[in-house]
Amino acid sequence: MAEALLEMRGITKTFPGVKALDNVNLTVQEGEIHAIVGENGAGKSTLMNVLSGIYPYGSYEGEIVYEGQECRFLNIKDSERLGIVIIHQELALVPYLSIGENMFLGNEQTGFGGINWDLTYQKASEHMLEVGLEENPRTLIKDIGVGKQQLVEIAKALTKNVKLLILDEPTSALNDEDSLNLLNLLKKFREERGITCIMISHKLNEIAYVADKITILRDGSTIETLDNTHGKVAEPRIIKGMVGREMVDRFPKRVPDIGEKLLEIENWTVFHPLYTERKLVDNVSVNVRRGEVVGIAGLIGAGRTELCQSVFGRVYGAKISGTVKKAGQELVLGSAADAIAHGFAYITEDRKGDGLVLSNSVTHNITLSRLELVSSKGVIDKDRERHAAEDYREKLSIRTPDVEQLVSNLSGGNQQKVLVGKWMFAQPDIMMLDEPTRGVDVGAKYEIYGIINQLVSEGKAVLMISSELPELLGMCDRIYVMADGRIVGELPRAEASQEIIMDMIMQASKGAQTT
Amino acid sequence: MSNLKTSFSKNLKQFVMLITLMVIIIFFQVLTRGTLLKPMNVFNLINQNAYVVVLAVGMLMCILTGGNVDLSVGSVVAFVGACAGTMMITWKWDPYLSTFLCLLAGIVIGAWHGFWISYVNIPAFIVTLSGQLIFRGLTLIVLKGLTLSPFPKAFMNLSTGAIGNFMLEINPAALLIFTVIISLAVFFLQLKSFYHEEDDEKFMKSLLAALLISFAVSLAVFATIHYDVVTHITRFLLGTELRNVSSLVIGLLLAAGVIFIEIKRRADRKRKGYSYDSLEATLIRALVIAAGIIYFFYLLANYTGAPVVLITVGIVLLVYSYITSKTVMGRHLYAVGGNEKAARLSGVKTEKIKFLAYVNMSFLAAVAGLIFSARLQSASPQAGNGFELDAIGACYIGGASAYGGIGTVGGTLIGALIMGVLNNGMSIMGISIDMQQVVKGLVLLAAVAFDVISKQKISFPFLTRIFHRRASAG
């Protein structure tokens, strides 16, 4: 047995009013990929922030032993000096700087009289080659996709002579193909360069695929560490550790009760708002019936979000053409307000960016899209508003001490429930859900699925985008497959499988490349 | 008692600001040997700062929409003053018509700014910087570089005078009838609200309470009718005669109102099962505020009485705290500032909200311009220089977030008062203008730094490092 590279002993970290970590122990051997799993709020990110010095020595209890020496990091520079590099879930790249500039940001290659750009870009190219990133190092970050941006982050870590790489949900924004690439890259680094890796993830299949050890955190304590080196640890085993109980079924059962066509989108075409010659959605026709959950599968960039956002009052895109019909009647939706008034709801994939007003309370967020329901003549009736908020808190079991609590103080899963509650409050007939369970833990996911089932049983129509195929397969009655802005397939639940869907996507993108 | 503590920590920032204001007042009261709170100085303090409060409230609306400020307000103040001067002094137009036209001019200017900012998407900073130049220039053109004075008396009364000793002029018979109506109304209102009590004993108790309240109200109003009675009481209690007893009565009524509202709000929240402050906390807060109000009006009663401009400022404060806290439009303001994309996706007409914020800003700048020129008694081309900075400073000291979405009218008032007392106190002490600016700058920075640090729990690595070294050395 190799000597432990890192040992964290008895780590306790308290925030005002909350014990985020309670006597957590973590041992990581040199050259292993160590996964940390747990529900949202279990303390995974906090633990990594302690390790990387974001929470300085003195603000927590316990000790960190790295390469046999006790470490007292006061900031992130201290830990980076020893080769501990953390890559956060929200990437820390500057969009208007080039790949090379970003890689050496804060670590500029200075020569006599300033930055040596030749050296910078030469070194950048070398590291980009190592991570398999085929781009010009002078390309701006904003012009490459999320998958490649993730690779830039890793290449950036390599420039810091990384020994211990910490990844916080590295694949949450990536599609399956990019995710697989990334995981293989981590494996390659482990074999070839002995880089140790700590990875936080919600995606259990990925963990099973790549991890040597799996440590489970729950409510700020270590529950157990599983050995995954030989043979695979079964997913239900991990889930049991995370939630503290056996999850019998990951998707709640629903007896479909499907009615007439409620939403029909026909010949829908959308162009990019800035590069108006780029077609994002190409002649798409989809329909959703009453009481039906319809999924849209596809890779990131396939045009799914653009489709929903353009239908929802044309809040995104340019030169939009096509028709939207609700219950057979054609509608012209010129703004989000129009769409809401006609019973549409769009739950965004980016809850912090454009879903919630974080500096407002739970109540204010829930009622924002239909304030007229709790007000008369422009004056808000605070009692009615409060009742509505309490109502949805109870219905969706949003865990907050008080509905007057600011949304920024809630955990990710509860924020997502507030977002769902907000749109349920708007009393829509048609709900478009864009990645409704992104960054949400297993328990909260199950609850959100239950809410979706509840909605369709009330005769609403649900159109759901998800990058997690098992989720679509588990939830939807019908699945459209989208690639390069076109619908390339439509499958009823019974005929759909991950393989068929991926195959459709691959065929389509191959076809697109040859033409 | 723990309840008191939690409610204190919950409202920490509001408390801290109030306490800061009090500390600053006491500080200058001592340093100026009591001049700061001399009745005449308090009167001047209000007149000097009325326009800042009005501008700051307008500025708050702009800041709420996303940390945007309006740099043009100083020039708009000057321009509106110039318009008022030209209409009333040069052209001898009716003061009321001119006032109306000036307010209209403010709205038009705001629409000009709002159009470019929200519909053409030009950053507010640039549009209002351009406005600052444009309207300063127009002021000079309108006034031809000269100062116009004096304004007609009717116009100046809007801003400079005091509320007269109106109780002397009221017809006692009319007031008596009024009293009876008021007490009957109170009695029936109480009766109605207690009607739902099913318990007989409770019903009788509430009936008794209603009777007592209506009796107290009658007594209070009756006392005010008989001016002599009040004068006697005050003379007996205070040993001196007040110059304007009516002002004290206004103060008493306002204080009673505050106490009533605080207690009623708590009772309502308790009845509806919301979280509510402990009785002690509510009473302490209500009594402190009430005492402050009474003392304030008592000071004014020792001089000529409450300034007329207090009415304008009071209306502005009430209207805008109502808009921000109770209306759909107010909620949309906070939403746009908190997260513009989320607000738009929620069906909020974000452009319209921003547009209205700027229209409103210039409207209030016009109000401030009228108040200011009436106080100056002239229309000057240099009026309003740097006013935008006073207003912006008041908002930030009062707890508004520089990123938008956070801030209250109450906080802004406190911020404006802190700035006003600093100005006034330092002037009395004879501190030079240059030094005053340094102090004001430092106060602004300290206020915002306190806000940021308390919110983000920033740690200071270098402090920890120094501490750490000491510890290991020792």
Would you write up a description of this structure?
Chain A is an alpha/beta fold. In chain A, 34% of the residues lie in helices and 27% in strands. In chain A, the strands form six sheets. A six-stranded mixed β-sheet of chain A has the order 6-9-10-3-11-12, sandwiched between helices. In chain A, helix 4 packs across helix 5 (146-159). The longest helix of chain A is centred in the middle third of the chain and has 18 residues, at 176-193. Chain B has two domains: 1-160 and 313-432, ABC transporter involved in vitamin B12 uptake, BtuC (Orthogonal Bundle); 162-306, no CATH class. Chain B is mainly α. Chain B is globular and about 65 Å long. The interface between A and B is large, with 42 and 30 residues.
Structural topology:
The complex is a heterodimer of chains A (515) and B (474).
Chain A: E1 4-15, E2 18-29, E3 33-37, H1 44-51, E4 61-66, E5 69-71, H2 76-81, E6 84-87, H3 99-103, E7 110-111, E8 114-115, H4 117-130, H5 146-159, E9 164-168, H6 176-193, E10 196-200, H7 204-210, E11 213-218, E12 221-227, H8 235-243, E13 261-271, E14 279-289, E15 293-297, H9 304-311, E16 318-326, E17 329-331, H10 336-341, E18 344-347, H11 351-355, H12 362-367, E19 375-376, E20 379-380, H13 382-395, H14 412-425, E21 430-434, H15 442-457, E22 461-465, H16 469-475, E23 478-483, E24 486-492, H17 498-514
Parallel strand pairs in A: 3-10, 3-11, 6-9, 9-10, 15-22, 15-23, 18-21, 21-22
Antiparallel strand pairs in A: 1-2, 1-4, 4-5, 7-8, 11-12, 13-14, 13-16, 16-17, 19-20, 23-24
Helix pairs in contact in A: 4-5
Chain B: H1 2-10, H2 12-31, H3 39-64, H4 73-90, H5 95-119, H6 124-143, H7 153-156, H8 172-194, H9 200-225, H10 227-238, H11 245-271, H12 279-301, H13 309-326, H14 328-338, H15 340-345, H16 350-376, H17 387-397, H18 409-428, H19 433-456, H20 461-473
Helix pairs in contact in B: 2-18, 3-12, 3-13, 3-16, 3-17, 3-18, 4-5, 4-6, 4-16, 5-16, 8-9, 11-12, 13-14, 14-16, 17-18, 17-19
